[in-house]
Amino acid sequence: MTTNKLKKIWDKNNYALNGWISINNPFSAEIMSRQNYDTLTIDMQHGLIDYSDLIGILQAITGSGVMPIVRVPWLDPAYIMKSLDAGAEGIICPMINNKQEAEQFVSFMKYPPLGNRSFGPTRQNVVNGTDYFKNANNNVLCIAMIETDEAMKNLNEIISTDGLDAVYIGPADLTLGTTQGRLPPGMDREEEEMIERIKNILSVSKKLGKRACLHCVKTSYAIQAIKWGFDLVTLNSDTRLLASSAADSINEFRNGVK
Question: Of 5, 17, 26, 46, which is the active-site residue?
């Protein structure tokens, strides 16, 4: 088993471009994996993907040179461990609110003595070789989502957790969670208070030697996030790209024949 791609990128202090998969189809995942992303996240939380879909999607990505990450539905050891066994090289876990939850997350990701992960890397042994166990603890990436008011209050304690590699900001839930619905959910926040929160998470991450990731929609916003200092940006998703590309071509056609 070799060091995963995202770790290599971060070890060189470079940024990574992440794609997002929500469609439960191996062929569309294969198309996404051939588009020069560094990493692809398979969304089991809000995407249309369950575990049986996950296997085919991971198989479609294999061989593309893109590193697979899975966003699990919740802080649940079953989803986390099965996703790792299936081939995920990193896990994004939503709604981490305090240090205890962050420590639980890490424990589900790591084999003893660093954690409580159960042994049975069924597909990993095929894809990454029988030495997977020996290297897994150093290679799997633990990425916690900061999304709530409680998480913001416990920011230092969460990010300082041993074994946690990075935090991931989903601006929609961060907005809902920290404004109690006063502001509507959405990406690419422009409100001063939201930019301040996003930059605060980034600043604490940098101070504590951890990586910071941000979900974006517009290319211009993702570029700005990299200039702020984010280590990974997600640029759009398969569903948004499909819808926007279809809309653009249809609008161009209809306007052209008027």
Answer: 46
Which helix (H) or strand (E) is 143 found in, with range?
Answer: strand 141-146
**Whole-number Å distance between alpha carbons of 225 and 99:** 26
Per-residue model confidence as pLDDT tens digits over 171-222: 999 999 999 989 999 999 999 999 999 999 999 999 999 999 999 999 999 9
Q: Residue 42: what residue type?
A: I
Decide if 46 is catalytic. Answer: yes
pLDDT of residue 2: 66
* Average predicted confidence (pLDDT) for the chain: 97
Contact 146, 201 (CB under 8 A): yes
Give me the helices (H) in 62-191, please.
77-86, 99-109, 124-127, 132-139, 149-153, 155-159, 171-179
- Note the residue count of the chain: 258
- Spatial CA neighbour of 43 closest among 93, 103, 106: 93
Mean pLDDT within 55-59: 98
* Coil, strand or helix at 229: coil
Band (258; pLDDT cuts 50, 70, 90): confident
Please state the rounded mean pLDDT for residues 139-150.
97
Superfamily of the domain at 5-256? Phosphoenolpyruvate-binding domains (3.20.20.60)
**Dihedral pair phi/psi, residue 208, rounded to 5°:** -95, 5
Given the structure tokens 């099965």, which residue do they identify? 82
Rounded Cα distance, 171 and 137, in Å: 29
Cβ pair 92, 41 in contact under 8 A: yes
